[in-house]
């Protein structure tokens, strides 16, 4: 989709009857190769393809050609309980901003609605102003995502350290496995947010060198956005540390559950040794066995085997291996 977003009117898809000569913001959403080619012919500017936006080298993500600044960054998005990261690109000229993205991002839609509601009497904003406004809104969305992730981790922490966890091993094991899955998703999301913040920070550095002719208010907004990114990076680092802490704690509880299972097996195997030994000894039936013809030999053997079970159980119980003292 190839949209033009003029000030004061809703966004419109580019067509033969649409004049884009004075448009400041052009928006390519999940563009096809034909739409990119059409945009290049209409604008006389190279539009980066998706494989170009996905390059990880800094020189590929941020460079200038013939006075045109090409910027790109991965941007995280949450949808239907999952998170994914897709590249977005900005082509910035002296008078025009072209955005290239392969997913719908709420921040772009918010800025687009503001453009549509803008008073036409105030004129079109500059390309730098539109770009800074988009970055500000994206930062706000990333902050909301981080806040949501922080709440999720708080809920996981309460669940992991809850003293009323189910004592049923099957239920406890399932709870811990689900916790590991949620922590894995949380760690991936924090990593993708960090990549997005790093890319936005580099974009701000590049565009700050092109705002000499812009009002001081815009320069101040760029500095404030940079400080917001720095604070979100700190929060993200704290979130990653919390994910690691909860991961270690969960693995520790899993080890405890496994040790409890091994204790049960140890108790069962230990209490079965002596009765088996006694039954084996008195089951040999040698002719000269003193107890062979003894009237009380049978109850004596049963009593001895019962004691060989009860005494180890009492010992394990006093050691706290099972039950509550």
Automatic annotation (TrEMBL):
GO terms for cellular component: plasma membrane. It comes from the Bacteria. Pfam families: CorA (PF01544). It is found in: Cell membrane. GO terms for molecular function: cobalt ion transmembrane transporter activity; magnesium ion transmembrane transporter activity; nickel cation transmembrane transporter activity. Keywords: Cell membrane, Ion transport, Magnesium, Membrane, Transmembrane, Transmembrane helix, Transport. The chain crosses the membrane at residues 264-284, 296-317. It catalyses: Mg(2+)(in) = Mg(2+)(out). It is a multi-pass membrane protein. Belongs to the CorA metal ion transporter (MIT) (TC 1.A.35) family. Mediates influx of magnesium ions. Alternates between open and closed states. Activated by low cytoplasmic Mg(2+) levels. Inactive when cytoplasmic Mg(2+) levels are high. PANTHER family: MAGNESIUM TRANSPORT PROTEIN CORA (PTHR47685). This is Magnesium transport protein CorA. It comes from Gluconobacter sphaericus NBRC 12467. The gene is corA.
